[in-house]
Amino acid sequence: MSTETLVPYDEALARYEPVLGIETHIELGTKTKMFCGCATEFGAEPNTQVCPVCLGLPGSLPVTNRSAIEGIIKIGLALNCSIVEWCRFARKNYFYPDMPKDFQISQYDEPLCVDGYLDVEVEGETYRIEIERVHMEEDTGKSLHVGGATGRIHGADHSLVDYNRAGIPLVEIVTKPIVATGDKAPLVARAYATELRELVRAVGVSDVRMEQGSMRCDVNVSLMPKGASEWGTRTETKNVNSLRSVERAVRFEIERQAGVLDAGGKVIQETRHFQEATGTTTSGRSKEEAQDYRYFPEPDLVPMAPSREWVEQLRAGLPELPAARRRRVQDEWGVADKELQDIVNAGALDLIEDTVRAGAEPAAARKWWMNELSRRATEQSVELASLPVTPADVARVSALVAEGSINDKLARQVFDGVLAGEGTPDEVVEKRGLKVVSDEGQLGSVIDEVIAANPDVADKIRGGKVAAAGALVGAVMKATRGQADAGRARELIIEKLTS
């Protein structure tokens, strides 16, 4: 737990202007690693997906993965970047146990993609996040520090290293300084990470699962006094692995750095670690500069010169990107900005669109996913897409309601059955006997019993107070366990008592 003095957020923003920068690492979903033929399957037994190349053994030579280069070019194009006509890899030299070669093959002064941008919306305002570079490198292995309370090296009894991840293609996306966000800075950072994740997922080159480490954000924050022209000293919070944590890390660093500056201190340029349990950051190590890594051109790889024809082929093959898709569905479905944002935030856009493709009306698809099923996902603390119900199931339930076979109350029971693994919606309706009672003979006998049991209400309806029929309809619904056709029941009650 941090013991540093924090300045309340609103007070900090009254005196200081935040400047942000976000470096995002994305593992590509290629079948093999960046420079060798080892598999990239997540969750394999430690050190079972390694070879002399990714272990850096003497005499081994790297070979560039073409699919990985296609992946980074697609990301660069989706981010409105220029794809350079010539670039090369470099060696980034440093010693750390998760780097078996003691250097990382990366790109330094000649990245593949440059000068892009990504627009994000926060509370109705559009912010253009400028992209400085998108470059290719290889991922590191994974260290596991055993013992101690924090899972970090300090206090651990010993450490283990899994090199399965070493050498997996890794794209790094670096923003230019993000300024003029004011008190929206944490929200802008989260919106950028969210939009970037959706964009990469749409392009189809990574699953961008932050919980598995295939997307990780390094969040840079600095403060400068209001009216100043010189930016403050930045800190870099490393490997933030959830969208919410990106927002929390920015907010905490603003409050912490304001406390340091208010006390007359100096912010130290360093890396920091985000603590999920407390929402705080803790000091890591002093931040290296480029010269500390002793970059030099990678001697074992030839430069890359992607042809314009290849780049344009990849551009032509890009799918509909998230912003364009949102505009399209908003027009098609007739939803307001706020409702669309709620759909996106709930992770329901794909589910609703697939449900509409399966035959449901957009309004019905939104109703079931955003209300009934979203509630159940919240109760179970799972993602909406993790529920054991498919868009086709939801479309069928919607169709059963539309055709009058079931009503909304019965539909909820159908979902109970589907989620419990009792079969398809039709099978659940059959097994549970959930069809609406609309047969006039059967419904008429129930109505007669209800009228006989409620003579006072019946007299009111005979006297012209038709609104009182609602009480009898409720009694009919109760008697049929919600299976009566409420509209038809009302019509029959009024016919019997007023004709």
TrEMBL record:
PROSITE patterns per UniProt: GATB
SMART domains per record: GatB_Yqey (SM00845)
Domain Asn/Gln amidotransferase intervals: 350-497
Keywords, comma-separated and alphabetical: ATP-binding, Ligase, Nucleotide-binding, Protein biosynthesis
Reaction catalysis annotation: L-aspartyl-tRNA(Asn) + L-glutamine + ATP + H2O = L-asparaginyl-tRNA(Asn) + L-glutamate + ADP + phosphate + 2 H(+); L-glutamyl-tRNA(Gln) + L-glutamine + ATP + H2O = L-glutaminyl-tRNA(Gln) + L-glutamate + ADP + phosphate + H(+)
InterPro entries with a match to the protein in the record: Asn/Gln-tRNA_amidoTrfase_suB/E, Asn/Gln-tRNA_Trfase_suB/E_cat, Asn/Gln_amidotransferase, Asn/Gln_tRNA_amidoTrase-B-like, GatB, GatB_Yqey_C_2, Gln-tRNA_amidoTrfase_suB_CS, Gln_synth/guanido_kin_cat_dom
Top-rank taxon: Bacteria
Primary enzyme class: ligase
The EC number(s) this enzyme carries: 6.3.5.-
Pfam families membership: GatB_N, GatB_Yqey
Keyword presence, Nucleotide-binding: yes
Subunit structure: Heterotrimer of A, B and C subunits.
Similarity field: Belongs to the GatB/GatE family. GatB subfamily.
Chain's role: Allows the formation of correctly charged Asn-tRNA(Asn) or Gln-tRNA(Gln) through the transamidation of misacylated Asp-tRNA(Asn) or Glu-tRNA(Gln) in organisms which lack either or both of asparaginyl-tRNA or glutaminyl-tRNA synthetases. The reaction takes place in the presence of glutamine and ATP through an activated phospho-Asp-tRNA(Asn) or phospho-Glu-tRNA(Gln).
Name of the protein this chain belongs to: Aspartyl/glutamyl-tRNA(Asn/Gln) amidotransferase subunit B
Species of origin: Actinoallomurus liliacearum
